[in-house]
Structure formats: C-alpha cells, structure tokens
Amino acid sequence: MIKAPYLLFIGDATDKLSIKMAQGAVDWSPDQCLGELSVAGCTVTTGLPQISIAQAARMGAKSFVLGFANSGGVLDAKWHDVIKQALEQGLDIVSGLHEKLTDIDSLSQLASNLGRQLIDIRHPQQSFKTGTGEKRSGKRLLTVGTDCSVGKMYTSLALEKEMQAQQLDADFRATGQCGILIKGMGVAIDCVVSDFISGATESLSPDNTSEHWDIIEGQGSLSHPAFAGVSLGLLHGSQPDAIVVCHALNRSHMRGLPNSQFPSIADTINLNLQAAKLTNPNVYVAGIAINTSSVTIDKGQEICRAISQEFNLACTDPLRDGVASIVNHLHRAPTKAITANTDSAIANRSELAAMVKRA
After folding, report:
1. Strand 213-216, strand 284-291: pairing
2. Which residue among 61, 119, 135, 308 is least enclosed by CB atoms within 10 Å?
3. Is residue 338 classed as helix, strand or coil in its secondary structure?
C-alpha cells in the first residue's frame, strides 16, 4: 500500500529520538526517501535536503510520511493544513501515530474526494487469534531491551543484513511502525488488543524451513512500567531460540519516567530468559548490542569489551562495529541465566559502572 518515494515530514521536532520514524527510513531505505520537510522551531534533521511539498511532487514523490512521534501518538491539529497541502499535491499520507488519520473527518473527506490514501500503518487490518505456545518449525531471534528506544529495531535490521551477507536464510519481522515503513509489512504489536498479542506474533512468524531465521523486532522492555505487557506478549509469541539484549549507555531512568529505576543488563537477561522459557525452554542469549553514541568510538569499544568479558557473550555496537560477532554465536549451546550473586560478578559490575560513569 505504501508507495515510494517519500517526503518525510518532521514538523518542529527538537528531540532526535522523536523523529525515529523518519530517521529509520533514511538509514535503512534511503533509496525511497527524496527529502525532509520541517518548520520553524525544528532543531533536528535526518540529514536529507529540505524540500517543499510542491517540489517533492514535481520530483515524483508518492507519499508524505509523518516522520515524528510523540507521547500518546496524537496528531496535533496544527499539522492538518500541511497534510491537506500534501493531499492536494497528489501524495498519499502515511502515519505511524496511534491517532488514526481516517478518524479525522476533514482529512478523510478530502482524501476521498481526491482519490488519495490515508495509511495508518500502526493499526492492523487483520484479525488475530490468541496464542497457543505450540512449537513452530524454523528458528527465531528476538531483540529485547533494558528500555524503550535503545536500538532493538536497528539491531534487528543489522542482524538481518549480516546474516544474509553470510548466506544465512534470514528475514526481518517488523513489529512497530518504523519497521513496517522500512520493510513494507509487519504488525504494530502495541496496537493489538492485549489478549491477542502473542497470537499476532505467532502469525507474524509462522512455520518455516528448519534453517530459516526470523529476526523479530523487539518492543518496549519487561522493566518498563508502561510497556512491559507488550514486551511480554511479544516474547511469548516470538518463541525465540535466541535473544539479543539491547542497551543504551548513560541512561539513569526508564524513558519518559524520571522517577523510575534503570535495570542492569544482568537483570534484563534473567527476566527475559525466565519469561521466554514458557514457550521455548531452550532459549539462549546470543549477544548484547550496545548503543554507544553517547561516548567516543574508542570508549564505546572499550566498554563493549568489558561487557563481553563480564558476561562471556559477544557485545558490540551494531552501527559502529557491526554484528558479525553476535551472528557467529547463533549456533552455540544454550546459555544459562546470568546472576549477580558472586563476589567476582559484583566486583566486575562495579568496575564496569565506574567505567561508564567516567565516559
């Protein structure tokens, strides 16, 4: 349904993470992106050239993508006129917000009159069954996180790219609006009724050949008070053989919750392994992916080496250093849950925390 190329609208965004919809498209499907459009007050950019709606239409743009996100996923009324301009220039509108474009009468009527599409990619059109937990053929990897927005989608896409480069049979399975825009298919799990989250995930990753890997994009975190329910349903429905733990350096609390406590990597591993064993008792940790963008490349690599040594797992920054080391661990024996009960583990963790703090 989504026609390329795109004009990416980022509005007056001031937070780089708030334009992850647009940035993800630029980073992973650049050939489909013509440019970006922002307005006064915007302090971030995807790096694409600024193009007006009229210019984009003349250049052959087919879709006007709302490339921003906000708390609650609502569309500010101030953007209605901009969207109408895009419709009048012959572009379809693509949104990943919770609020549906098709529920806004003025936009819906204009789109209908002009024969244009309003595409709410966050809202599944199909019906789902409840999960069964029954064993499916094929292999599955799920990215999980210490928090939201720590790089689960980027890590998943990097894993797909590396696995395919190594001639492995692997496909990315999108579970969020950004991933759906990039791949053109998937299910936005956070918009599925809670009873059907695991069943929807099962349908997203059905039976496959024995050597095929589905790389399933993770959502939220089991430690996030707001989104743990989505994370748990996705974990059970994914029935992962392997998980990759994603983490971002220098966070002190869960995203959007300044009074919350941030979980350790060890706690995140244990929580996910324990929960994942409900549908796959043999699940193991294949590696740890760290977003080190808040420190220098050298410091990031030093921290990854320390984490790798502490947990005896491959640890890397997917964007800076690639994920080959994680892919190379996909066929090893299952990993036992990692605990922090030994004096040596506690000492290592304290030393690592001090290193991150110095960074």
Report:
1. unpaired
2. 135
3. coil
- Residue pair 253/262 in contact (Cβ under 8 Å)? The answer is yes
Closest CA to 326 of 336, 346, 311, 340: 311
Mean pLDDT of 315-332: 92
| Model confidence pLDDT, tens digit, residues 264-290 | 999 999 999 999 999 999 999 999 999
Alpha helices in the chain (DSSP H): 20-28, 53-58, 80-88, 105-114, 152-165, 177-183, 197-204, 228-238, 265-276, 297-311, 318-321, 324-327, 343-358
- Are residues 88 and 202 both part of a single domain? no
338 and 193 in a common domain: yes
Q: Are residues 249 and 300 in the same domain?
A: yes
Identify the domain containing residue 265 by its residue range. 139-358
Of residues 147 and 335, the one with the higher pLDDT is 147
What one-letter code names the amino acid at 86? A
Q: Answer yes or no: do 116 and 215 share one domain.
A: no
Q: Residue 334: is its pLDDT beyond 80?
A: no
CA-wise closest residue to 1 among 186, 170, 174: 186
Q: What is the count of structural domains for the chain?
A: 2
- The interaxial angle of helices 20-28 and 152-165, nearest 10 deg, is 10
Give the C-alpha separation, 342 to 232, whole Å.
28
The more confident residue out of 337 and 57 is 57
H or E, element range at 290: strand 284-291
